Amino acid sequence: MTLPLHTLDVLCPMHAAVSGSGHIRRTGPTLAKLRLDGLVGRRFLEVFEVQRPRGLKSMSALLNAAGRKLHLRLRDTPQTALKAVLVPDGAGGGVVNFSFGISLVEAVSEYALTNHDFDPTD
Predict the structure, then answer these.
(1) Chain center to CA of 51
(2) Closest by alpha carbon to 2, among 122, 65, 64, 93?
(3) pLDDT number for residue 95
(4) Is 16 in contact with 98 (CB distance < 8 Å)?
(5) Residue 4 DSSP class
(6) Are 84 and 72 in contact (CB under 8 A)?
(7) Rounded distance between C-alpha atoms, residue 81 and residue 23, angstroms
(8) Which run of H or E residues covers position 27?
(9) Residue 85 phi/psi, 5° resolution?
């Protein structure tokens, strides 16, 4: 079953849909606020540095880590730390759902986020 993308915007406002080639196809509204110059069309691994698990330097390696907790950091300033999990989309790519983890307070301040930027259960 494929969920409509607007469903992901509500359930996972910090998601990125990534193609099999590693390009970001779509982002949720909160993730889009982290980089106002845009993320769509950019290569996921050029935007995000995977810190753990180590050695994930290709889209195929990232897909092989599906379901595992990822520790990431934005490569450019501010280098916000993020936690994430990738779920394959059945079409060769995947959907990555992000969270701020313990850096939530800093992120709310840095990006002027409000309650509307998070899923309703947060």
Answers:
(1) 14
(2) 93
(3) 96
(4) yes
(5) P
(6) yes
(7) 20
(8) strand 24-27
(9) -140, 140
Mean per-residue pLDDT pooled into runs of 10, the chain (122 residues)? 72 92 94 87 96 92 95 91 94 92 70 73 61
Q: Rounded to an integer, what distance in angstroms lies between the CA atom of residue 18 and that of residue 51? A: 19
pLDDT value of position 22: 96
User: Please, which residues have CB within 8 angstroms of residue 58's CB and are 6 or more apart in sequence?
Assistant: 22, 45
Residues 52 and 71: beta-carbon distance below 8 Å = yes
DSSP string, 32-85: HHH-TT--TTSBHHHHEEEEESTT--SHHHHHHTTTS-EEEEESSSS--EEEEE
DSSP-assigned beta bridge partners for residue 99: 83
Compute the distance between CA of residue 83 and CA of residue 101 in angstroms, rounded to an integer.
6
SS3 116: helix
- All residues at 6 or more sequence positions from 16 whose CB lies less than 8 Å from its CB, including other chains: 24, 26, 27, 28, 31, 39, 44, 95, 96, 98
